[in-house]
Amino acid sequence: MAYVSEKKEKGIAVLSTATSIIVPAILGVSLIFTMGYSSGLIYIIGAPYQLMSLFEGIIAGTLVFSFAGYIIGSGKTYRLFAGLAFGVAMFFTVYYIIHSVDYVVPNGLLTVCSFIITGAFLPVSQLATVIYHGRFLRGLAVPAGISVISIIVIAELAILYEDSGQSNLAQIVTLMNSVTLVALILMLFVLISRKSSGTGRIQN
Amino acid sequence: MGSGSLLKISVIIVVLMFIIIAFIPVASTSGVKTQGVQTVELESDSGTRTPIKHVINIYLENHSFDNLFGIYPFDSYTSNASLSANLSVPLNLLSNRTARDMLTEIPSGTFSTKDPNEGYVSYHLDFNHGKLNGFLNGSGPQGLTYYSAAQEAPQWDIAEQYGLADNFYAPCLSESAPHHLYYVAGYSPIINDYGPPPYIPYSQSIFGELSKYNISYGVYLNNTAYRCASWDFLYGHTDYSSHLQSWNSFLNETSDGTLPSVSYFFSQGTGKSMGPPNIILNGEMLLLYVIDAIEKSPIWNSTAIFITFDGFGGYYDQVVPPVMDGVQLGLRIPLMVISPYAKEDYISNTQMLVTSILGFIDYNWEMPALNKMVDDSYLPLDFFNFSDCRTPIEFSPSAGFPVPSNIHFSLVTNTSADNYSSLFPMEPQIPLDKLGYNRTGSSSVNLSSMGVGILNKDEHGYTPFFESVGFYSMLVVLEIAIAAAIITRYRRK
After folding, report:
1. Taking CB atoms and an 8 Å limit, are B491 and A174 in contact across chains?
2. I want to staple B383 with a disulfide (CB 3.0 to 4.6 A). Which of A140, B90, B163, B315 is the partner?
3. Which residues of chain B have a CB within 8 Å of the CB of A162?
């Protein structure tokens, strides 16, 4: 019986880790694409020579903000609100930059913009710290995992977007937001059903 | 704020969002019906103001005026220098030694360059607030080049025998998609190749106007499945899909005389559009084939062909483009006008852009101006001498012109031995000293001066609700609300 229980606990721990990485990652990617769409950033990208500059900012930003969010954590409610406000502020910063230069964004500034727009990963990573309850070193795997998965998904979607002749961004944004919503609703549903069945919080 | 109240707020937001999402699309969808798929009213079946009963628009890709006609009509290889010296000279590099010295002539046997860095940003860097000195940072050194008669002889011959505009501008400083929209709608809600959304409602395009006035038209692509911004970015185009036809249909309708009044022939997506890095010889071959088919057809005597490009493609041009109706125009691009009524060896100095072609269509079929920019654009009327109907000029394979045997010819890949300089200049159809008109000139007529009215006074791109920023913002708020609810639940445990 003890063996079965240990196995079950391990399974729950793996599930917890996967959930705390994958759900925030897709949420982060959804936010990035929505913010790119809404800020007008998408209007200025598309040429192959911009790819390096764009991804330099995205890779650096995703890593920096994911780890920053994890370190800041979610211990206090105001930190969560501050993280959210930071993400929103980053969006408006990019919006302001792009419009103040009339969309003429050279590669250097493109790197800056793509870095800033990944500020959304700070509150997303904070969300992950709430979900995940592992030890500190193992916990670092969470922002690392969020970053790696997000960068891969962003790259895949960017390729899809380019291959379609820069025409299907709206569909991509819709798809990402739909997947995110389903994932979040499922999580919420599982939490509510656990409460009603008397199951306690996931422990590692 | 406590975690309990956070949860309540989240639940309230979620419920409100669902209510809003459930109701707002209904209103939006009903808006689509009225704006995008407008009921076509057949108002009149009018005649034409000129002998032109067929306007054929041929759209090529990505070259500036100085890139293709920079040293026209000078030919260092020519055996007929005296004729060349007597031809009309446009505003080009021949009168600007400084600019010419800055550029590189593409050597004989070479018919392409590396593709200049394309895009809104690159082209604005080239433009550099009107200084035109940013090409090395923007489009790159490959943009600082020009062709000669060795490659351009067929197009130079067309210009010599018919008409060429040297004051014709791209409608914006960007790449293909917005140019396509200006080409068929006279405005663009997008600034780059991204899109749609926003779309342009079909009723706001020239096709919508032609439908409204019961004037026949056709859009011709090599492959109708190819995504062409001039068609696919028009909202509601699926209701008019019978107008989208293939190149084969174009040739058949031309040869049997059933071609619609207005035709749009697109070369894009075929390797025959002249757009770099494609070999421009393939585009010239396509052009010669199509012109030959039209010239041999029963519609020749009532046809005007407008040939132009979907942007300057990052190639240098010396003229700082003007601002028109608040729009910063792009660099000059070539416009060639072929018609039995086209003046010979004519250079038009009229300031124009693609909206001038739309204006000509509106003028010819006595319709109101499609929109304000079309209304304000000068008409290309100076190209024509309607008192004379000329016989077609033959660009014959036997004379050495690279006319393919089929429109679907295999692309030429090796051009190292090709030099077409000997084809230029051609003997003029009418001796130059016998022409009863000036060989340069301009037109100051526009639809505004004629008071014909404006069809579309409201020019805004259309974004369906489910593709709008507002919709996505709602989804994001919803996601944040659910995430907040999740956080609250975890904390309570």
Report:
1. no
2. B163
3. none
